[in-house]
Amino acid sequence: MNLAQLRSERRSRFWGKEVLPYLGYVIQSGVAVLLLFLLIAFSAWYTSLVQHIPAGLPIRWIMLILLVPLTVNSSFRTYLQPADTVFLLPQESRMNHYFNASWISGVVYKLLGLALLFLISWPLYVRSDEAPKSCGLFLVVLMALKLVSSYGCWKELRMVSRRAAMSYRILRYVIIALAVGAWLWQPVGRSLIFIVLIAVTYFVALRVPAKHLVAWERLIAQEKTHSGRVLMMLGWFVNVPGRQQRIYARKWLSWAGNRIPWKPGAAYRYLLMKSFVRSDILGIVLRAGILGALLVWWTRGGMLGSGIYLFFVFLAGVQLSSLLRYHSESFWLHVYPIPPGSRRTNAIGLAFQIQLLFAFLIWLPLLGAIGEKPGAVLITLAGGIVLSLLFRFFAGRKKTADDDDE
Amino acid sequence: MNGNTVLEIQGLSGGYSLNRPVLHNISFQVKPGEMVGLIGLNGAGKSTTMKHILGLMNPQKGEIRVQGKKREEDSEAYHGSLAFVPESPLLYEEMTVREHLEFTARAYGVARTDYEERANRLAQIFRMQDKMDSLSTHLSKGMRQKVMIMCAFVARPSLYIIDEPFLGLDPLGIRSLLDFMVELKEGGTSILLSSHILSTIENYCDRFIVLHQGSVIAQGTLQDIAAQAGTSGAGLEEMFYTLVQGRD
């Protein structure tokens, strides 16, 4: 069996048959144009910022916050399927032929992304820092740290103990953050010695935990998550067939949805609420909310603050629109006596309420500027509410192929 | 149409393709308080018949009535009159066992107090008390099948469609299921049950429908089937073997 070819075929099938057919619609969709517009607006703002850098800009902290997540972030597409635990298991000792390409593509594309971010941030860094490092050396250090992180991530995937894998993941985050921090704040020689020492120690530590030859179940679960995320992103632009995404237990949220009215017309809302609180979408919306609130607080009192606020409300709306496509192929929704039309109404209503709550919560930091500009602060909130209403309006008009009302 | 019939199938032909129907002119009835066994070889058309009853496939010919209503006439009342237990568990990975039961109860309009009483009893009968707050992904296949059965039983429609319910169940689970079905039947509920374990259902079903290559080749009580098969004193397995033997 040619394992490298098998992976290559699976990769082509996923991107060629499951993703490529939708790209045309993505380009045509209004959301894509809006994102392009936002990109142009960001470029204009960034150019202006680079030309007029404010005094005392905490550039080293900004670089740390920008670069650490992308340097740490590592993942691998394996295209493994549940049936592989039966059919590929006999090939376990040869699976490195299969995984070689996963490793290479998992590292190369992320290196390119990191390099792009670095090059974009470089003009700001070189003009703000008192003692900037050389561009080439900075890039080489980042690439090396990225390789260390990717290697560590691959080893974590093979660890037998889940607890050990989680601990090593935290260790990897700490090591990369310390290494980037040392590089930004310390002189070249001293920081390089520190980075080499910490990397060697990390490599030695990685040898300790027991590992599977191939961690089949974990890799299959990861693959499911990754492919689900790609389709979820496509889902922001076009209707794609739903695919199960990663589930988070989130026991602290198990109460959510329990107070939804006890009647068949609201049964779907109950299901959707349970799905939402254990989905990827909640995590994304929460992270966007925290980041948005921080940025809104930082830029409060100006037009930029209002713009950032509206951008994050828009972002939440795009994410929450995924709720409209949830359970589009659910068997039980065809069998259970759920009133016709209630699915769509419930989904739109729930997405609207969550977006409205989001709009209110990330508006709260603007209250810090209400003494100076009460009108602007209140108009910004009104803008957030109008944006949420617009999302609701367009969701109501949009026809989906699996619309249960039809 | 017979007014005293929970499920009535008349002249049903259907399948995935118009040119190649899987079911050929099928007719049978299920009356209140009856447990009817639908038996046949793999590919005989049992699951396809059930899909037509559930409204997942549309008949090419013939009609299906549940409690005297066709699905097109009143979809909500039609679906509210039946519950289904599939051959393989189909659960929402993001919901716990308790939440599955609650979702079903909400969808079927079961009163909250009835739901709580039924859910507790079912958890006890199927030995799932300590799993009620577990996500379905953390359950074994047998437990997942128990959740499917519990969901169907938390609603109390007049008709149950049950497809191969014993797969994956432990012996105690099978016994609990059979006992519960008998209890429902005695309360006037109708059950259409498909299974390959003929020696088990032989003792529980009132009537049998034998499907072969998409057609009903025999139906009736055990005595009726024996007469049609030309075997007397034999068990259902032997009768079934005689009926399908040499028909390929």
TrEMBL record, chain B:
PROSITE patterns: ABC_TRANSPORTER_2 (PS50893)
InterPro entries, per the entry: AAA+_ATPase (IPR003593), ABC_transporter-like_ATP-bd (IPR003439), ABC_Transporter_VariousFunc (IPR051782), P-loop_NTPase (IPR027417)
MF-aspect GO terms: ATP binding
Pfam families: ABC_tran
Domain ABC transporter: 7-238
Keywords on record: ATP-binding, Nucleotide-binding, Transport
Annotated protein name in UniProt: ABC transporter ATP-binding protein
UniProt source species: Paenibacillus chibensis
